[in-house]
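Q: How would the structure tokens look for this protein?
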Amino acid sequence: MSMLRRKDFLRNLAALAVGSAVFPRASYAECVQSARTKLDEFSIVDLHCHPSLKMFLLGKRIWKRTFPGPGANPLTMQITTNELRRGRVRGMLCAHYIPEGALAQQTALKYLYPAIKLFAPGQLEKLEYQDASNFTQVNIMMDDLEAQLHRANQKQCAVRFVVPRNYAEFEQAIMDGCIPVAHAIEGAHALGRNFPLKAIECRRPPPEEYPQTGSMHGDAAYYVRNLEALKARGLCMITLSHFFENDLSFPVEGIAPDTKKDIGLNWHYDPNDGCDRPLTEIGEIVVRSMLDIGVIVDLTHATPLVRQGVFEINAARGKPRPLAFTHTGSRNIFEKYAAQCKGGPYKNYGSYAVDPGEIDQISRCGGVIGVIPENFWLVGCDPRLDPASGKKFKYGIDYMVETILDINCNTQMKEFDNVAIGTDFDGLADAPADLYKPSQLNVLIARLSARGVSSEHIKKITSGNAMRLLKEGWG
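A: Here is the predicted structure in token form.
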């Protein structure tokens, strides 16, 4: 090989330096332009999904190509860069969920605990600690998500991610052709827990069981400080309740009966047995703080009394904030089909869905209800619960459309101002056969159009209402 003259070497070195500086930027610009060409009136903002859960539990990578299918997808990512590139999702609220410690106490997991402790001790660190360090855990989840999205941007250019700190950054990211992924939390136990669960029951501990840390108002200040710290790093929403009670709120049934049987969970929500509990005093204080500083209150999973308490607190404000149910169904549609399910209707599970009165209250405060693609929570049945009607309950898009139409009929204006989409993808939800990955949301849009929903109204459902919720609730 011939030797380069000094002049030629310097010329080539300069060209290499210029190329390394220009080509990545040109590639990025090309990616942004490609993304912009895909932005249309039916772009989707997903109000509730869980990519960080499988990252946290299983070390999954969002840039890896996977092949999800119907059902829970316990080991397969549903939200990947490839799926986002093929689909219409242009913004997401990532709900960070720390698996509740009660899962190891009140399910069959307790029998596996010694083996897990011996062979995979690191996995036990993924369950909540049931104390103040829950707050540290949720920050670790947020850190992991941000780091992985940064790496995804370095590894590929098909999808560009941004983690916004406020609504203005969320909106700007979409305008720039990027996908904003905003921090949210599912389960207020992430703010900390002073009252660990000890048994399956529907009561708060009596005062004598409270740790001696001062008054309830004093205890609440600790949660408020954590809330404010999370808000500062970009938190936009908290789902107050999840599967088990926490120091703020109480849950309804949130796990389908077949899954509860699989994991050996015997707790049942029964409003006549003391389970329909209101916000705790700490919960009331924290909810007021959320409304004051601009963290959206998500009422999904909460008991009817908790929901009503939040509605009342919000209505008493000089200017109410929009509230949300991010991933749920309609009580009307649930009860209509649950009675047709073999073995159903499953008692008290319908409390998970919103009833007409709650839909009305959501519309009065300008709130939004995200419809979930999971058949049990839409219609009270699925193929596992009723194999004989497997085909009927196998597909979910038509049930989603019916739910969207029913919710709209119970709103004030009936102009599709209060309904959106919350997929719960990667949250181990039992997805139907026709909607288990982001690229299939195109079919939902087509089906809405076929049912006579106008383009203007579809735009509200897919993104307009979610953007307004973020603007007015997160601002």
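The chain has 19 helices and nine strands.

The chain has two domains: 1-38, 42-473.

Upvote if useful.
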